[in-house]
Design goal:
alpha+beta, 5-stranded mixed sheet, 22 helices, 15 strands
Length: 632
């Protein structure tokens, strides 16, 4: 039996679905559902539901428990199900996600994984033109009501999308069986893993529907006054670094002088022109340990900001943005840096505030990547180090660098050094890169790397074996089936140059399993009826009513720990941060917010004074009245 035949026999109906709708203001959730169209993959039957008047509100179109629901990028369809109170179907196959699993690493460029492009790659014929698709989408988006002819056009367009998706689905199933060499014994596992990924897209739709509660008054105040205080703040910060002129224009010579003054010349990369690089990645790297560069980074963020673009609220006062699950090659989320609140600067998080009667909790996997490294490789030294509660301090002791009495309080710099060392090793970086990041000599970096690799030699041997096997088999895979295909060679072309990708493969198993852990936690928390408001690559933000907070918080943390055990075979501990009012940050980050609001207070007072003065001048008695001979 083929994999396609197995799928047919596993469900009462195998239905491809597409829906048309109009987005809300955030362009991340459906505001108004227009229609649904289904096609049975094996019988060819088509079912059309005009939903513009919410005709099936609260009633499913089918018994979804008996069906496999297939769609292309299932977040949209699930958003429509939630909009109509249908719930999230459990059995889902997201053709987009499986397409990304097979081809994300080799098909690049804008639109490379879209439906029509994928259909062409699979040789699906009679594909609609992009012009016709644009015409129909504009009809749907630009109208709030539709006459009978428009309804017919929209339903036919939706049905055509469904037909194409059905054809692509069949080709995809055959492709998966061929590329993975699936046998009958593999079918149940493969189908369950695919449906888990599909269902996770439904859970993402629910997170986006929940949105992030914010302090709307504070956001409005900030947006109203930011332009008036930005220049003053920049000038104040610039006094300590002197790299901008009076018009807040960056001066290259002064920036180079800053690098020299801070003693960073031997580590700071240069452009071909001889000037020091000022790109975001370089600045971010040095800002981690140099206060003056951090100040420069802050000023740059101010210059590029006109308002809180990541805090544009919907009609209900909550912020939403597409989370973009499976957005990276490791299968991790990749929401917009401009529109997603938790991707913005940390001080922005002061704008997040629980809704009345609730508390927010930020649940974070502690030292997730080292834990995954230990559990997947079976390196007992690494597992034991993680279970001490401070893997970085313990590693320093094992490597003979730190004394037995060392703690994060007594040796904070050394602890950070080993944290950076973990990250460097995860990405396969050598002694030169480590010396640059840590600001130490090359010989010292080599000594640290040797001690680190010797301490965790089981992990490093496992990592090399995983990569060698992946290059031989032409793919890497997680325990839950997410893959990175390696169809060509261990090189790729970027900016016209051939670059070896061997080092970049080192951290793929770790990060991709981190993505699997988060997805498992997302699914289990959703099934336990938690309100999930946001996802980060190793954390979730949830809201709980105050009356339930203690019990529900512990339940959520247990669910997340259990999710890690399911994926990597061992518990990854979860810390939490309680947010009862505006989300305060660590001291140095909070100072940025305090400085901004202090300056905003001054600005508002000055505006109030100017307004009062102007009003007084308007109400004052004109001179000609004072000198008048008219008697009252």
């Amino acid at each position: 039996m083929t994999f396609l035949g197995y799928i047919k026999n596993s469900f009462k109906r195998v239905l491809v679905v597409d829906t048309e709708f109009r987005f809300d203001e955030s362009m991340s959730i459906p505001q108004h559902v227009v229609c649904f169209v289904y096609q049975d993959v094996f019988t060819g039957e088509v079912y059309k539901y005009w939903e513009s008047e919410n005709l099936s509100l609260g009633r499913g179109h089918f018994d979804y428990e008996d069906c496999l629901i297939i769609s292309y990028n299932a977040v949209a369809e699930n958003g429509c199900y939630l909009n109509l109170l249908h719930g999230i179907p459990r059995n889902q196959w997201d053709v987009y996600v499986e397409n990304a699993r097979l081809y994300k690493s080799i098909r690049t460029g804008k639109g490379a994984l879209k439906l029509l492009t994928t259909a062409e790659c699979y040789g699906v014929k009679d594909v609609m033109t992009k012009e016709y698709k644009t015409e129909c989408l504009e009809l749907i988006i630009n109208n709030t009501s539709y006459d009978l002819d428009q309804q017919k056009q929209i339903l036919n367009y939706c049905a055509e999308d469904v037909r194409i998706t059905a054809d692509v689905f069949i080709k995809q199933v055959e492709d998966i069986q061929d590329k993975l060499n699936l046998e009958y014994k593999d079918y149940p596992r493969e189908l369950q893993q695919i449906m888990r990924r599909g269902y996770s897209q439904g859970c993402v739709a629910k997170v986006q529907k929940n949105g992030i509660p914010i302090d709307l008054a504070l956001v409005n105040r900030f947006n109203k006054n930011w332009d008036g205080v930005k220049d003053k703040l920049i000038k104040t910060y610039n006094k300590t670094i002197n790299v901008f002129d009076e018009d807040n224009t960056l001066l290259d010579d002064k920036f180079d002088a800053l690098v020299i003054r801070e003693g960073l010349t031997f580590r700071w990369p240069k452009l071909n022109s001889g000037k020091y690089k000022k790109d975001k990645k370089t600045i971010s790297r040095f800002a981690k340990f140099n206060d003056k560069i951090k100040t420069f980074q802050q000023i740059k963020s101010y210059l590029n900001m006109s308002r809180l673009t990541a805090y544009e609220p919907g009609l209900d006062g909550r912020v939403r943005s597409s989370i973009n699950m499976f957005g990276t090659i490791t299968g991790r989320t990749s929401p917009s840096t401009a529109k997603y609140p938790l991707n913005a600067g940390r001080w922005f998080r002061n704008m997040i505030k629980p809704s009345w009667g609730n508390d927010l909790y930020y649940l974070d996997y502690k030292s997730q990547e080292p834990a995954i490294m230990g559990y997947l490789s079976g390196d007992q030294n690494l597992i034991d180090a993680y279970r001490t509660g401070d893997i970085y301090i313990h590693t320093g002791k094992l490597c003979g660098v730190l004394p037995d009495y060392a703690t994060d309080i007594t040796h904070p710099k050394e602890r950070n050094m080993f944290k950076i060392l973990y990250l460097a090793n995860s990405y396969g970086q050598g002694a030169y890169a480590v010396s640059k990041q840590l600001g130490i000599s090359l010989s010292k970096a080599k000594e640290l790397l040797r001690a680190f690799k010797e301490t965790y030699k089981v992990y490093f041997k496992w990592s090399e074996q995983i990569i060698d096997a992946g290059l031989f088999n032409k793919f890497l895979t997680t325990s839950m089936g997410w893959q990175r295909r390696l169809f060509n060679v261990a090189d790729k072309i970027r900016d016209g140059k051939v670059r070896n990708i061997y080092n970049s493969l080192h951290n793929w198993p770790v990060q991709s399993h981190g993505g699997e852990v988060l997805r498992m936690a997302l699914i289990d928390l959703t099934d336990a009826h938690f309100e999930i408001n946001a996802l980060v690559h190793d954390a979730v933000l949830i809201q709980i009513p105050k009356s339930e907070s203690l019990d529900r918080l512990e339940e959520a943390k247990k669910i997340m720990v259990d999710a890690s055990i399911k994926v990597v075979g061992g518990p990854i501990s979860v810390s939490h941060e309680t947010i009862t009012t505006n989300w305060k940050q660590k001291k140095d980050i909070q100072k940025m917010f305090t400085d901004i609001m202090t300056e905003m207070d001054r600005y508002e007072k000055s505006k109030t004074y100017d307004t009062l003065t102007s009003t007084y001048d308007t109400l004052a008695v004109p001179p000609y009245i004072i000198n008048s001979s008219i008697k009252y």
